[in-house]
Amino acid sequence: MEALTAEQSIAAITSGQTSSEELVEEALRRSEDDPWGAFLALDGERARRRAKEIDAAAERPPLAGVPIAIKDVLSTRDLETTAGSQILKGFRPLYTATCIKRLERAGAVVVGKTNMDEFAMGSSTENSSYQLTLNPWDMETVPGGSSGGSAATVAARQVPWSLGSDTGGSIRQPASLCGVVGMKPTYGAVSRYGLIAFASSLDQVGPLARTVRDSALLLSHIVGQDPRDSTSLDWWKPIEVPDTERLDGVKIGVISEMLENGIESGVKSATEAATATAAELGAEITEVSLPSSRHGIAAYYLIAPAEASANLARFDGMRYGARAAADDLLEHYERTRGEGFGPEVKRRIMLGTFALASGYYEAYYARAQRVRTLIVRDFGEAFEKVDLLLSPTSPTTAFKIGERVDDPYAMYMSDICTIPMSLAGLPAISIPCGVADGLPVGLQLTGPAFSENGLFSVAHALEQAIDFDALPETLS
Ligand code: GLN
Fold first, then answer.
1. pLDDT, tens digit, for every residue of 347-363?
2. Structural domain includes residue 315
3. Which helix (H) or strand (E) holds 444?
4. Which residues are CB-contacts of 346 (< 8 A; sequence separation ≥ 6)?
């Protein structure tokens, strides 16, 4: 069976050509055969039962029983949720994340949980303490991260779409490396209730899909205020599925800092070609500078670890998941955390604890927060001149497995183009814009807060005009 997009799946179910049961069965078949290591767990029994219920229901829900995969950082009741960490091995949450509940209510069927960097810390999914995930375009390369499993499964056409989470780039960068669409909504658009926290002022849940329209459709079902997350926003405007063709009058600013050093030439030329396409569609193109964005990585690697060091304090071996045997309480904590956390997580806890320590707080954490404010201001000034910003998503295409594992700095640079938007809480989308040396290149569009509909419109028009050959089905 040809792998349908979510939109095509809904149409096929609605017209009676197929059923949710058939599509879920097909998704499970494709997901069981998983040479990419995209999944940590499948939930076949429940998925089949849900599909049957939806097919038998008097009224078909809007998502009609289409299968979906979920990053393992989102809590699923009774289904193991590990966040890629040994410390949560065997953890079965008592509740399901709000965003998943909303999707299930709308008729999506969860088929399984996808692999990720431990606690979403990483850019290649190599920090998962369970397994590697391979990029379906080239199995010697990484799928990006931390939502690598969610990106790979969509690229490999196991499922039409998935959920990921993005703190500094974790949806957009793997989407870029795997040639799929990935979207980080405005901070607060999607409830974080049930999302295992990494850096709470940055974490957002968002969609990965093969098309911009599917991404918009998925987001439309998860946005909205949730009394269980006080940072979730009252979403007054529904997300619309776009059908724009032209970009007349749209002002696009190309971020000058993001076409400088460190951007691979193939990425640069694909970005320039996409910019030319936007101009052909009628957009007005200018160059825009975000001078403080060059300090984004430095600020992020103080703020995110600081928040992580506090958030991860709860994993003490008492409340969740794995627990080490010990004679006294202190030894119990030390052994559980010593054995349960991997090296990158430990590095960040130490970094964050140090940055928050009295005497250092002002020099590191408070300073990083001030840089964050400067970055927010740069974006504010840019959006006085243009409607949205354009840049590469990732400075490079997919890199080789192992290439950056011993060099945290090189790994951190993977997010040089995505972190500034995260620090400013802005919505941003990555769409495939070309192929360089056989690997996909992602284009990032960023808009002001709450500009999701505008972003999707422009992304859709560009997606239609860009000649991107997705991975042939025969290869996947
Ligand atoms: N790669 C970045 C990090 O390691 C971003 C991760 C994310 O967005 N969760 O922190």
1. 999 999 999 988 888 99
2. yes
3. strand 439-446
4. none
The CA 304 to ligand 1 mean position distance, Å, reads 9
Using the structure block, give the residue that is written with the tokens 């006080």. Answer: 230
In a domain? residue 273? no
135 close to ligand 1 (CB < 6 Angstrom): no
Same domain, 361 and 414: no
State residue 474's pLDDT score.
Answer: 52
Span from the CA of 16 to the centroid of ligand 1 (angstroms): 42
Q: Is 167 in the pocket of ligand 1 (CB under 6 A)?
A: yes
138 and 229 co-located in one domain: yes
pLDDT, the chain, mean? 96
Q: Tell me if the pTM is above 0.85.
A: yes
> Is residue 476 over pLDDT 50?
no
Quote the pLDDT of residue 475: 54
Q: What pLDDT was estimated at residue 260?
A: 86
Are the C-beta atoms of residues 149 and 182 closer than 8 Å to each other?
no
**CB 344 near ligand 1, within 6 Å:** no
Q: Is the CB of 146 under 6 A from ligand 1?
A: yes
Say if residue 113 is in the same domain as residue 152: yes
Using the mean position of ligand 1's atoms as its centre, give its distance from the Cα of residue 189 in Å: 19
Q: Which two tokens stand for residue 436?
A: 């360089």
